[in-house]
Amino acid sequence: MKIEQIYTGCLAQGAYYITSNGEAAIIDPLRETEPYMDRLEKDGGKLKYIFETHFHADFVSGHLDLSKKTGAPIVYGPTAKPDFEFIAATDGQIFEIGNIKIKVLHTPGHTMESTSYLLIDADGKDHAIFSGDTLFIGDVGRPDLAQKAASMTQEELAATLFHSLRNKIMTLNDDVVVYPAHGAGSACGKNMSKETVSTIGEQKMTNYALRANMTEAEFIKEVTDGLLPPPAYFGMNVAMNKSGIESFESVFNNGMQAINSAEFESVAEETGALILDTRNNEIFAKGYIPQSINIGINGDFAPWVGALIGDVKQPILLVTEIGMEEETVTRLSRVGFDNLIGHLKNGFEAWTKAGFEIDSVNRITVEQFENEIKTSQSKVIDVRKESEYEAEHVDEAYSRPLSAINEWVKDIDPKEHFYLHCAGGYRSMMAASILQARGYRNFSEIEGGFNAIAKTTVPKTDFVCQSKVLKV
Questions:
Q1: For position 150, what pLDDT does the model report?
Q2: What's the pLDDT tens digit per position in 289-337?
Q3: CA atoms within 13 Å, Cβ hemisphere of 243
Q4: Is there a contact between 14 and 39 (Cβ–Cβ < 8 Å)?
């Protein structure tokens, strides 16, 4: 028996490849099938089942492509009703893979179809639980994502999750290994550990939601407290996972179409495409195609695309570093952004050599900011998360998280200069590109962000204080 966790850091997502005696199972596969097909070919194994823990909201699954290529059936737990052929497993049903067994444990609460899969080894011993978004390391799945589909409140879903955990998960032996679908950084929970593997016993001791003698009311309050609004693309990804999607190969081929500089601008105008520039923020600041949005590939790229662009049907043209086209297209497909028209042939250098118009961001050094702020009356806008802001921030700075830019941008006075920063420059450059695409030019973005500011004499506050409200 072999269990391999295939962890994708950009999405903080864990898929699982399990083999036993020439047969294999895959749990919660990502969009691209090549990693799984390569493993099957190397092992000379036959894929017997594709298990899905639930309809994922934060990524598009590769279950359909994988099933078509291998003939393996897709398995969901009770109450799942996708628009394609699948096995509707019953609670307690057993599936055999080689010398091992997979037992279905229906664990609703995160969503009503949420199901965990218990691996029973060749000796008949409970070995591991693949808990999906029901149980994370240090947390449990948020109960607010499926309210509309389930016709339930988040409190009712939380109560359902409470009983799933107590009756199906916490009754397992302490040495059973826990393999969750996500780790720290995922928006599917709020308090996940950086660890991606644990045991039932460890979670009973350390996970706040599995606390001994915890009442249902306490659980509901603590699990629902402090939930941030889910990213805009979540609902669209759920729909795609339920209804079926275009093949990964088709999306990939579209995105890999190289469009020369002479045609790029006209294609953007004709299609209404968003120009997504995935280059490093330092490079982007110096020059970019006007109206481009910068989301750097070297960061939490896919989740930020989902959060800031939102509509997966938006046509997109890409500007990437040369050689990063394939990686960019693949990551976009993982979160359902399939309407890719192509990418700029030979990258941004080709655009500048052709003499086309470029734009830039007014990025200043932290030393300039330190000198200017002494006498400046300009506001400082901090686009980090509220928790980062509360830990420490520039005196009198306004907390305006990047994820909520569509809400707070309308409160900016376009005639009043302000400074803009995040932690290191990745998020503030996203914000800068969005602001400039919407006509705001009245700001200076600070190179190095708060990491650099913290080393200066700029006055800072290191305790929680109430965020200010920008005046229109």
A1: 79
A2: 999 999 999 988 988 999 899 889 999 999 999 999 999 999 999 999 9
A3: 9
A4: no
CB atoms within 10 A of CB 7: 15
> Where do we find the tokens 């895959």?
26
Rounded to whole angstroms, the Cα distance separating 398 from 395 reads 9
- What homologous superfamily does CATH list for 363-461? Rhodanese-like domain (3.40.250.10)
Gap between the Cα atoms of 174 and 199, Å rounded:
6
CATH class of segment(s) 2-234: alpha beta
Q: Which residues pair with 46 in a beta bridge?
A: 23
Residue 176's SS3 state is coil
Task: Read off φ and ψ for residue 251, nearest 5 degrees.
Answer: -60, -45
Q: Is the pLDDT of residue 369 over 90?
A: yes
The structure tokens listed for 371 are 């000198």
**Superfamily (CATH) of domain 246-353:** Rhodanese-like domain (3.40.250.10)
Compute how many other C-beta atoms are within 10 angstroms of the C-beta atom of residue 468: 12
What is the rounded CA–CA span in Å between residue 241 and residue 234? 11
Q: Which residues pair with 364 in a beta bridge?
A: 446
Domain ranges of the chain: 2-234, 246-353, 363-461
Average pLDDT of the chain? Answer: 94
Would you give the distance in Å from CA 469 to the centre of its chain?
29
Comparing 2-234 with 363-461, is the CATH topology the same? Answer: no
pLDDT for position 463: 60
Looking at residue 173, the DSSP 8-state letter turns out to be -
pLDDT value for 467? 46
Distance between CA atoms of 130 and 127, rounded to whole angstroms? 10
Report the b/e string of 254-281 with b at 16+ CB within 10 A: bbeeebebeebbeebeeeebbbbbbbbb
